[in-house]
# Entry
Amino acid sequence: MSAVAAEKPKLFPLRRRTGTAAFHLSKEAVDFGSEDLERLTDLGAVRFVANLLWGSYKEMPCPHCGTIDEHYWRRKELRWKCRGCGKTFSVTSGTVFADRKLPLKKILKIAYGWANGASGKPALQLRRDWNVAYTTVFALVHKLREGLVRGFNTGVLCGVQEMDGMDINGRRYREKRNKPQGGKRTDKPKIPEHLLKPKEEAAPFIGPPDPPKHGKTARQPADRRILLVMRQRGVVPRLGAMATRIGVALNESTATVTAMATRFASAESRFNTDEDPAYAAFGKLFAGHKAVCHSETYSLPDGTNNNQAESFNFRMRRSAEGIYLSASNKYLADYAAENAWREDTRRLSTGKKLQYLLRVAMWVGLSRWWRGYRQGKHRAFEMLVSGEQPAKGRGRTKGAKPKVPC
Ligand SMILES: [Zn+2]
# Structure
């Protein structure tokens, strides 16, 4: 039998499996569940968070003065009193969850459900799951995203990196990719040539060539964005990339990709990109640069490819078009940082993922963008690789009341 099987010709080289699917079905993938959170008492929840933040629920730094000590424990209030400054603090004081109204257990449950989504979980769904106000859960998950933007999407990558940009947002961005705004309809039924009046032959045209209608020089919709991604390849073969950084830009030009790469890559990095001319200068800026021409192949015979960057693009596309549906440009970097985190933690077990998420999000300090959200304090800018840019919200104008049908 084996001889017959060996003779069977292979029509194409089979893709090597990385084992991610096997991991998700394995026992190790789920070491923690909703029931474990349900079983926690209020004290147990405090200890759970204290342990993952400080490695101990007895000794910790005071968020007011920084004294590290075994502070006085107030059992009834579930708070500590500082031995240094005498102020009291809870396990969420000085973190993005400071001044919370929700009980800690409920926050943990919502964060757990949110962390388990493969490419995101909508705030509306969480609201239905947990019966809380939409703005409450929206601000809560955005605080987690803020933690990922400020705590996860930072730091320099090294080694072999893959970089790519994808079109996102903007009016009909997908059909109009690389086409100018207000392009002609192409789906009109065409009249066959032989039914038309024969055209008179025009005199040969003499003059400069037409300006390019398509491509990067064409005018783009003002609300279209390019999401740039850099991924560092792992050292273990066939396990994919291990670290991801994202950035949002108005276009994919030499200036924007260089700004992104010099922020997140060490000079010794070697880059793999597609054949886009924006990356042409990378050979001089970094230790190496290889390009793969995507109109011809996805991987050169020597293995040059940027498929790990494309893998992130695909997850982001699923998130934007299948989960969040209408993420605004203002918060696009936040959603992208969330997906970068999801991509990098794809092989962590559920318990480790929750702990990692909370540790990153709760170590960035107080929330800068979401404190007082329900009182009308909203972030007024979107984050681009070139800096911050003023952005308006999309909700109701201030003071406007919804129309009530009579
Ligand atoms: Zn203190």
In short: The pocket of zinc ion is lined by residues 62, 64-65, 67, 82, 84-85, 87 (CB under 6 Å). Residues 116 and 350 are 7 Å apart (CA to CA). The chain has a mean pLDDT of 87. The chain has twelve helices and twelve strands.
